[in-house]
Amino acid sequence: MENKRGLWTSNYGFLMAAVGSAVGLGNIWGFPYKMGANGGFAFLLVYLVLIIFVGFIVMLGELALGRKTGKGAVGTYVALSKKFKWIGWMGLLSAFLIMSFYSVLGGYCIKYMFVNIGNLFGGHAGTGADIFTALITNQGASILFTFVFMLITCVIVMGGISGGIEKFSAVAMPVLFVMLIVVIIRSLTLDGAVEGLKFMFVPNFAPFKENFLGVLSTAGGQMFFSLSLGMGCMITYGSYLSKKESLEKNAIIIPIADTIVAILAGLAVIPAAYALGGTDAALAGPKLLFITLQNVFDAMGAIGPFFGFLFYLLVIIAAVTSAISLVEVIATFFLDRAEAKGRKGNRKTITIIASVGIMILASIVAADGLGATGMWQPLGFCWLEFMDLWSEGIMMPIGALLMSLFIGYELGIDKFGEEIEIGGNKFKSKSFFSLCIKIIVPIAMLFILLGQLQSFGIINIL
Ligand code: PHE
């Protein structure tokens, strides 16, 4: 019965796709800097504790709900509880909003990959800041590169779960890993790299004393975005997983792999930025990727553009494997809806329509160029931040919060546990899961929501 919708062909394939979703821009430009600025190794410990009590729990919750119903974000809640239906709708909307800026950033990476290819063949495109300013103020080019990124994403999703997403991720993720190791070796062997290592790893409890709640909410916010939680992505991916596989095992492996890649990404970028980026180099966000690191590759001499090319290709792969999971949330929604009406949806048509919808929204973000082109700014945010505020800032934490309440109090742990135990698996973490989903996760997610609102400057209480 479940085979009608298609399934991952193997647990390995599923894992590569799920880890691919988790590993994205968040790992590369969010985690390393946040870890360094918020206590180094001490921050990492807090992050790991949050993963155990919140990340693992929400991950298991989403995977199991999806597999239980065999439906995507909206379909799952429609099947289980009319009252909670709108969590699914928020997830669907979040997928559109995240894609509206993710695709623009992915497009920028494509441009930078070409810049480095050009430099490799003797060109010189100018400093990171020159290239970036020229790019974000050029609306046509920004939209064009966004389009190229969307096209790649769209083609993969059109291929379907096993034929597109799994096939691509099963190759792309190991390749990404190898490329990351190569870049790390170069980064760590630069003179002065050790300062970057110190920034990232030396435990520093000062931020804890100054603003412990701030550290906690930073770690929490980073965690759930990085794990692709709170918007139905893992529900959707879980819905294509065979009933034979152990959900608990997968819910442990995905966060571990994501965290390892986040730390590795830090080893790749932060030491290099310290060694060659200058003392006031930006270590986070778009500036890290598109100004600091481009300057780093420039400063490496003749071999620099080669590493630049490798690095931006790596980031493109990380971004594409995340983007396909976001588009899949939308595609699965329409496929489920067609099925509910007794029709068989056409995946290719659906994916193209979803991509066109995203492209329209993304064109606004691309044309805005992080506010550099003087377009009207909603609520004083640049369009990228505005889209990010509604998705990552508001709807995703609320989504995860409500999901935990739904499982803990509406569905019930026993009913939930049936799905985990299918196929002879034991629900080993049952009492731990129950405690966390009923009490710890709701409190943590409420708190993370406040932390997110604070980081966007909406409130000021933490
Ligand atoms: N986890 C991805 C990252 O770290 C972003 C993402 C969020 C992807 C939500 C899918 C769903 O960049």
Task: Please tell me about this protein's structure.
The protein has 462 residues and is mainly alpha-helical. α1 packs across α12 and α2 runs antiparallel to α10. The radius of gyration is 21 Å and the shape is globular. Phenylalanine binds next to α1, α2, α10 and α14.
Compose a concise summary of this entry.
The protein is mainly α and 462 residues long. The protein has 18 helices and no strands.
Tell me the number of strands.
0
Main beta sheet: none
Mean pLDDT: 96
Low-confidence regions: none
Bound molecules: phenylalanine
Compute the CA-based radius of gyration. Answer: 21 Å
Termini separation comes to 50 Å
Helicity range: over 70%
Global structural class: mainly alpha
| SSE string | HHHHHHHHHHHHHHHHHH
Estimate what percentage of residues fall within beta strands. Answer: under 5%
The coarse silhouette is: globular
Enumerate how many helices there are, as a single number: 18
Give keywords:
462 residues, mainly alpha, 18 helices, globular, binds phenylalanine
What is the strand and helix layout of this fold?
Elements: H1 11-22, H2 25-37, H3 41-69, H4 73-80, H5 85-120, H6 128-136, H7 139-158, H8 161-188, H9 193-201, H10 206-226, H11 233-238, H12 247-276, H13 285-299, H14 304-340, H15 347-368, H16 383-411, H17 413-421, H18 430-455
Helix pairs in contact: 1-8, 1-12, 1-14, 2-9, 2-10, 2-12, 3-4, 3-10, 3-12, 3-18, 4-5, 5-7, 5-13, 5-14, 5-15, 5-16, 6-13, 7-8, 7-14, 7-15, 8-12, 8-14, 9-12, 10-18, 12-13, 13-14, 14-15, 16-17, 16-18
Bound molecules: phenylalanine.
